[in-house]
Amino acid sequence: MDAREQSFAGPPPYQAVGRHAVMPETSHDEAARFNFLANLNKYLSSALLPGVKRAYEQRAKPRFVAEHGRLPQHRREVRELMAQESAYQNWSALRRSTMECRQQAGRAVVLRQLDRLNRTAAALNQDSPRLHLQPDFAVPRYVAAVDHHCMPGGYTGELAADDVSAPANYDVGIFATTGGALGRYSDGGGRALVSWLQEAHPDFRPRRILDIGCGLGHNTLPLAQAFPDAEVVAVDVAAPMLRYAHARARSLGVSNVRFVQANAEHLDEADQSFDLIVSCMVLHETSRTAIEKLFGETRRLLAPGGMVLHVEQPQYHGMDVFEQFLRDWDAFNNNEPFWTTMHDMDLRALAVRHGFASEQTFETGVRAANDDSLFPPSDVRKEDYGRAAAWYVFGARA
Known about the structure:
Layout (H helix, E strand, L loop, with lengths): L2 H5 L20 H41 L6 H8 L3 H26 L2 H12 L5 E2 L8 H4 L20 H13 L10 H13 L7 E5 L7 H7 L4 E6 L2 H13 L5 E5 L12 E7 L7 H14 E11 L8 H7 L1 H5 L5 H6 L2 H7 L7 E7 L18 H4 E8 L1
Parallel strand pairs: 1-4, 2-3, 2-5, 3-4, 5-6
Antiparallel strand pairs: 6-8, 7-8
């Protein structure tokens, strides 16, 4: 066994995933499939990815320098080089295959129990004043036309009345996709925001919170739990996501969130009516036009002294071109058409253009919060999941 094989330590078992009323049940074999995929993803990142970097440093980059008399200056040049390298070809193909397998594994789990899941969600949602759907809602094309993350039907696909198949698929598989790096309930992004707020702004007590693109509420609930006296408004364009999110919140005992089907480009809310506005891994799934409108809308909605926090993967400015190339993989291989454009944008300039003062904008980093029972504090293996858990926050104050 070589050193790389000796250093490999797998992710926590799928059986550790957090459960709630609408979480799909998994059989022994289904859990085993997720365990296999989680371990394969871990192997790709810890054992094969370093080989991709060596191929670049030892072969591709010297070849480029010999031909051009300079180092690669843009990730496009790196991508053209690495497309010829078998180490990258194999890693990329396997990574794409794991995503497709993860989606199909989750879909199989959900479809065999879809009637029960839909009934359970419908019962939890029935006549609730905290779930607001619009039957004739126009889903924007940048969401409706894309199967993000290779998920069949994307976020909005529906197979039956009161359908929750898309979010159930997302929920049942994300623990395996991230190797548990986002915690039992895959809510590490929301808990990271809460931890940052408590450390950086311990006296901040928002009365109204807006979560843009809440999805199935993974990152909404930690905010609602941290600020129980606040009214949380969680908006999304996808009805299935909101049905599932509301049912999930109710089953977990969180009752201060209103889930609303709405487009954050133009919300039916009063000016300066929110003290905290957040989004988590949403900006890269919009569009150039939409992100402009979204920044303008957040400025309109933010109350004096309030704060906007957008959580994303890091922007490309100042980043090494090889690292940019690796992070850009999702744009070409994981159905993320706006990924490259968004990560090239100057978000500070965008915010200023829509009324935020430059000196009131900021950038910081957060690491997804986890559960010590999954990755004990002394266990350095949690660092192996770097890109899944180390996030960038763009913020602005009113």
